[in-house]
Amino acid sequence: MTSDDGLVRAVEAVLFAADAPLSLAELRRHVGGDAAIEDALATLRAHFAGRGVELVERGGRWHFQTAADLAHLLRYDRAESRRLSRAATETLAIIAYHEPVSRAEIEAIRGVQVAKGTLDVLMEAGWVRPAGRREVPGRPLTYATTPAFLTHFGLISRRDLPGIEDLRAAGLLDPAEQSENDVAMSGDGD
């Protein structure tokens, strides 16, 4: 066995045992700071392509997941998840498209106040996190999405969020709301 094989095995073991997706820096801490982690990940990704599990990268973090075409086999093990309220869904969308965004900015876009519980639900789900304070009077707290948000929705980065034309094509916008949404979704969108 070559040292490259040992590195691939080590990265595979660390990812398999991890309880959350790992960044390159976290992988380096486990297997050695100067290791060729990217090469090992490429080898593992190729090895697991077309198998029952696959190696995926979401938001700069790596993990193994069940192959998409086999996910139906595991559905019975999943807990029934609660649906987000319309307010929580709208708030999550605003944060995703405009992050970092303050509560006042969310309220200005939605046109109604955001209940504290709405942000709490999103933070408990692990999809939203506090992102610091704005350097303006009152120093309001801002919010941003998390790597768990990307993972849950199968996104590699926020750039993969659907655009306004994608939403229209999917029939998710009412004609009366389209002009409002054109303005709301034209945020800075990293």
From TrEMBL:
Entry-linked NCBIfam families: SMC-Scp complex subunit ScpB
Matches recorded under SUPFAM superfamilies: Winged helix' DNA-binding domain
Keyword terms, alphabetized: Cell cycle, Cell division, Chromosome partition, Cytoplasm
Pfam families: SMC_ScpB (PF04079)
Keyword Cell cycle: yes
GO biological process per UniProt: cell division; chromosome separation
UniProt name for this protein: Segregation and condensation protein B
